[in-house]
Specification:
alpha+beta; Rieske Iron-sulfur Protein; four-stranded antiparallel sheet; binds FE2/S2 (inorganic) cluster
Length: about 150
């Protein structure tokens, strides 16, 4: 193999590589085609796409059963950052579980108050108002729906 032949081979390979890169770029350069194709395929794919449409169509997932919430007390839902209380039998309230003092997540409900573990703030289960500082603002109330024994965010 002569030097010039070797160069030709190397150049040829480089050219092919460049062509591949350009082809890849060209396919990235037409996202509208892909976007149109994906939704069109979804209804046809029974197994793969069945979960997504169900989530959209259904009402919000229940946070809790009413039986989960003690009367005169409440329960913390840490992952949802919510506290649900039942100040009086059959009356349910929901509040943000983020303490208005410095943002800790409240940790427990006892003796009619929601307790923040960080600096000892307490909030009333009836309306989330401050029962004891240092927090100066009430917990934000969240709207909920109670039906069929289930509690959902409204
Ligand atoms: S963050 Fe709750 S009392 Fe300070």
């Amino acid at each position: 193999m002569t030097e010039s032949t070797r160069r030709a081979v190397v150049f040829g390979a480089g050219g092919a590589g460049l062509a591949a890169v350009l082809t890849a770029c060209a396919s990235y350069g037409s996202p509208t085609t892909e976007a149109v194709v994906d939704p069109a395929e979804e209804p046809a794919g029974d197994e793969a796409s069945s979960a997504a449409p169900k989530k959209k169509a259904k009402a919000p997932k229940a946070l809790a059963d009413i039986s989960d919430i003690p009367s005169g007390g409440g329960k913390i839902f840490e992952s949802q950052k919510l506290v649900i209380t039942q100040p009086t039998e059959g009356e349910f309230k929901a509040f943000s579980a983020t303490c208005t003092h410095q943002g800790c997540t409240v940790a427990s409900v006892s003796n009619g108050v929601i307790n923040c573990p960080c600096h000892g703030s307490q909030f009333k289960i009836e309306d989330g108002s401050v029962a004891q500082g240092p927090a100066g603002e009430p917990l934000a109330e969240k709207k909920i729906n109670v039906s069929g024994g289930k509690i959902r965010l409204a």
